[in-house]
Amino acid sequence: MTGVDDLRAFRRDGRIVIVGASLAGLRAAEALRDEGFAGSLTMVGDELGEPYDRPPLSKQVLTGWVPAGGTTLPRRRGIDAEWLLGVPADRLDLATHHVRLADGREVPFDRVLISTGVRARPWFVESEAALDGVFVVRTREHAERLQRALATRPSRVLVIGAGFTGSEIASVCRERDIPVTVTELAPAPLVWALGAMIGEVAADMQRAHGVDLRCGVTVARLEGDARGRFCRAHFDDGSTVDADVAVVALGSIRNTEWLRGSGLAAGEWGVTCDTGCRALDIHGRVTDDVFAAGDVARCPNPIYENRLISMEHWANAVEQAKVAAHNMVSAQADRRPHLSIPLFWSIQFGVNIKSVGVPTFADEMLVTQGSLDDHRFVTAYGYRGRVTAAASFNNGKWLNHYRRLIEMAAPFPPPCPTPDQPTDMEPVPAVFPAPALLARGATAVVTGRDPGECRVTAVHQHGREEGRTTTTHMPGTLQRIFDYSARADPYPLYAELRKTPVARQEDGSYVISTYREITTVLNDPHLSSDARHLTRPPMPSAEEGVTSSFIHMDSPEHDRLRRMAMRHFGPPHTPGLVTGLEGFLTATVGSLIDGLADKEQIDVVDDFAFPLPVTVICHLLGVPREDEPRFHRWVNDIMNSIDYNPETDPKEKLDKGVQARMDLRQCLGELVEHRHGRPGDGLLSRLANDDAPDGRMADADIVATARLLFIAGHETVVNLITNGMLTLLRHPQVLQRLRDEPDLVVPLVEELLRYEPPVQIIPWRAAYSDITVADTAIPQGSQIMLLLASGSRDPKRFHDPDRFDPDRRDNQHLGFGSGIHLCFGAPLARRETQIALAELVRRLDRPRLVVDPPPYRRSPVLRGPIHLDIEQGDG
C-alpha cells in the first residue's frame, strides 16, 4: 500500500480482521470506524459472548454484587462487523493473507490485528487441575463457577499465588467470612509487581484481616478424595492444609500458540511490535499488515529505554488499541507511536491500590506521602536518578502528578506535593524477587520516534548473568537449588533430585540431574545453546546487544569460531601452548606464595586464587604488563557484581560491575585494533592476524573470546583451586600423600572436578524440536537446566560417589561439561590448578581451616567459597 489512492481504496473497500474479541479488540474496532474505515470488519473470538470487562470478575462478580452476565463492555458506537464467536483462530498465513479457524474456515484479510490477550496459567499437574474444587479465574465462566462454590460456604479456600488476582480473591473470601489460606513463593504478597517494601505492608494487611498467609513455600501436590474432589494441599516444607476450594492464581499465559509457523516474532512473551503496534517478524523486520494490541502485545517504550514491555493493564489495552487502529488506516507520515504510561488499580481488604508507570523498572523507592502504618501513602520509584513509577494505597488522587513526573523524566527522589511527607524516610533499594529488567529474550533497538520512519531490530540475548532465573513463579525444585542455605552442601539435595531424573517445573522448564541423561542431552544435536530457540528466553544481561561468545552459539557458527580460536590455543595446531606456559605458571604461583610466607592467617581466595588467573590470562593474551592492574580491578568488580545480593549489597556494587564490563570490552577492542598488521606474541595478536582457511575472526568475536577467558575462565580456576584446597584440608591424609607424591596432583584434580566441580549447573539449553529424555517428552522451545555436579555424583555411574578418591579409575566426570561445548579453556585450567595445589601443599606450613564451612558465593552455578581463611605455622 504505497500511494494515496491505494490508502483511500483500502479505507473504502479493505478487509480488516481482528483476532481476539477482547477489550482491546472492541475498542480497536470502534476506533477504526471513528477513523473513517468503511471496509469489511471481522471479529474472531474463542468465547461465545461478545467482549466483556475482566477486572470485575475477581471483585464484584465473586462477591455476588454483579452477575457474570452483567460485565458486557458498553459500546461507544456501532461497529458494523461480522462476528465469528465460539471458535478460536488456529493459524495465521501471511503468504495468502488468511486467518484459519479451528473449524477449518479461512477468513481473508488485508490487515489483521492480534488482540488475543492472555489466559490463566493452569495448575501444572493436569490430573490435579481436573479435581472438582480446583479453579482459575480469567473468564466469565471461571468467575461464575467460583462464585457458586463460595456461596456454599466452603470450610476453607486455598489461594495459590499472592499477586493481585490471588490477593483480591483472598479479600473476597474474608469479606464473605470464609477462612482462607494464601501461599506465595516470594517473601510477601504483591512483591513481584510492587517490591518488597510494599509487599510487607500487604502481608500485614492480609494477616490483620484473618488470612492464613504462608510465604516462602510452594504447593507440591493437590490431593483429591475418593469422589475426585479436592480436599488437601501438600506444601514443599512438609506441611498440609485441608480445604474444599483451591484457586490457582499463578499469573497468565499469552495466547500466541496459533501464531507458530507464521513467521512472526511471537512466543510465550507475546507478539513483538514496534512503537506503532506493527508486529515484527522472526528476523526483526517490521511488518505492515499485522498489528497487535492489548495484553498480548510486547512493544518498546521510549520512556523505559525502549525495553520491550508486555502489560496486562486495562488502560494500556484501550490506548494501544486506539494507536493500532489509527496506524492501520493511516499513511506512514501520519502514524503515531504508543507512548501511554501504564495505569493499574486493585481493591482488596478495604484498600484502593493504584500504580502508574512500571514499578519493576526501578532501583530505588521512597515513601513520599503519608504513612505505611496507616495504609495510606504514595511510594515513588526511581531508576538511575529519575522517576519511573509510583504506587499508592488509598491515596490515588496524586497519581496524575506522578504521571507528569514520569513523562518529564523528573529527578528522583521527587519533591513532595503535600505537607505530609515523612521526615524520617530515605530512599531504599527497590527489591523484587527477580531483577528489575523488563525484557525477556529479545529486546529492541529503535531508531526514529515517528513510527512511519522508525526501524526496529529485535536483538536476541545469548548470555545471562549467573544466578538469575527466568521464571515468574519459581517452582519448588528451582527455589531449593537457588536457596543460599544449600550452597555449602548441595549434594544431599542433588541426591534427592536424582530420584526424578527429568523433572518438569511449574514454569514449563525441565531439570535434569542424572549422569546418563545429562550426557545424552549435552551430545544431542537437537539441543541448542542459542537463547533464540527458547520459548521463554532467559533474562538478558546488562550488556544488551553485545556480541556473545561462541559458547552461546550452535553449529556451524560455533564450530567455525571455536576452530579459529583453537588454532592458537591448543591441539592440534598449537599442542605445546600449555606446556610452554608451565615456567610462567610456576613462577607466578611461586611469587604469590612468597607473599604468604610470613602470614599466620591467609585467605586462599583473596591472597592467592583470585589474582592468579588474571595474571595468567593477561600473559596469554599479550596484555601489556602496565595494563594488568586495570584488568585485575575490572575482573574483581565483575565477579563482585555476579555475587550481588539485592537485599544487603549497595547498588554501587552492581553499577561497578556494569561499568567494568564496558571498560573491559572497550580496552580489549582497542588492543585488538592495535594488533592489526603487527604480528607478535599473545593470543590477541595471533587472532587479529590469522590467515587460516576459515578467514580472520571478526574483532567483535575476538573481544568476546577474550572476555570469555577473563570472566568464565577466571571464576572456574578460582573456584577449582579454592574447592581443591578446602577438600584437601578436610582430607589431611590425602594432603600429606600429595606432599609426598607430587605426581598425585594430576588424578587428584580430575577427582576434584568430579567431587567439588567449580561449574555446578548449566542454567539452560533449548530444545530445537520435541525430544524425549528418560521417557519424558520435552516440547520444542523448552528450557532445560542441567545439574552437572549432580550427574558427577550419580551412584549409577560412579562407585561410592560421595567419597573423595584421587585413585578413582574411569573418572569421566562432567566438571568441564561434554559434547561440542566442552570447556574451551579446560587444558589451561587443569594445569594452573595442578601447579597451584602442588605448590601450596608443598610450601604452606601445617595449614588448617579457620572456619568450616566457609562462606560461599551466592551463585549456585559457579560455586565456591567467597573466602577461605586458613592458619599456618604453630598458630
UniProtKB/TrEMBL annotation:
Residues 15-321 form the FAD/NAD(P)-binding domain. Residues 344-414 form the Reductase C-terminal domain. Keywords: FAD, Flavoprotein, Heme, Iron, Metal-binding, Monooxygenase, Oxidoreductase. InterPro entries: Cyt_P450, Cyt_P450_B, Cyt_P450_CS, Cyt_P450_sf, FAD/NAD-bd_sf, FAD/NAD-binding_dom, FAD/NAD-linked_Rdtase_dimer_sf, Reductase_C. One of its GO terms (molecular function) is oxidoreductase activity, acting on paired donors, with incorporation or reduction of molecular oxygen. It comes from the Bacteria. SUPFAM superfamilies: Cytochrome P450, FAD/NAD(P)-binding domain, FAD/NAD-linked reductases, dimerisation (C-terminal) domain. Transmembrane segments: none annotated. Belongs to the cytochrome P450 family. This is Cytochrome P450. It comes from Actinacidiphila glaucinigra.
